[in-house]
Amino acid sequence: MQRFAVGIEFCGIRYKGWQTQEVGIRTVQATLESVLSQIAAHPVHLQGAGRTDAGVHATNMVAHFDSTAIRPIKGWLLGANSSLPKDIALQWIKPVAADFHARFKAQSRRYRYVVYSSPSRPALLHKQVTHAYYPLDVDKMIQAASKFEGTHNFESFRASSCQSKQPVRHVSHCRLIQHGCYLVLDIQADGFLHHMVRNIMGCLLEIGQGMYEIDHIDEIFAAEDRKAAGITAPSDGLYFIQADYPQRFELPQVALGPHWLNMPE
Fold this sequence. Notes:
Blueprint (H helix, E strand, L loop, with lengths): L1 E9 L17 H13 L6 E2 L8 E11 L5 H11 L4 E9 L11 E10 L12 E3 L5 H8 L4 E4 L14 E12 L2 E8 L6 H13 L7 H8 L14 E7 L21
Parallel strand pairs: 3-10, 5-6
Antiparallel strand pairs: 1-3, 1-4, 2-3, 5-9, 5-10, 7-8, 8-9
Helix pairs in contact: 1-2, 3-4
């Protein structure tokens, strides 16, 4: 039995998120498992680094699976990509030690949320960015983003349906970057709660519109109540871009993405 780690890129528009659900619901995990099972000639179960909501994208979702099949690495990669739908692709595959686990060995996870700030909507980026047609105070949003760094109780910034046993997370960085007409929230943490990034982005958009001052974030944290925070930003602009693992696993390093954004790492 050999364990393999894989890096996956996908466009989440047609999928009800990453995680396999009931029969008949299209998910990224179920689609990949079906294809990999055909190549392996036995059932394959994938374990991903994280879960993504319906409509969320990824540029390098890391997952692992076990197989007794003897196949060259090129055979796995080309075989999978020739059978997968065009909106899912394996970027790389690598044999790893038996103790590697895509979820439990991940030391941090990183997302980018992309807002297209312009009075006119972007046709070619439909469902791949969130369109903000209204004026935004970007400088204020940049200052506000740093308030989320450090260790906090994110009870107010998680969905009511979140199943995590505790809401405390450590955010190592939370930066809002203006890149042309794009506003990019780049956030890394030891773990994320359901809708956490989307709720943070929703808060920043409200501050950018002048609905609240920056210090209002402290009041939201103190309330420890989802009702104290504002909107949940759409899933369209959210990308899972990286999971960090101990160096001994020697996983491939790829560009963070999304690739069309062409911004510095």
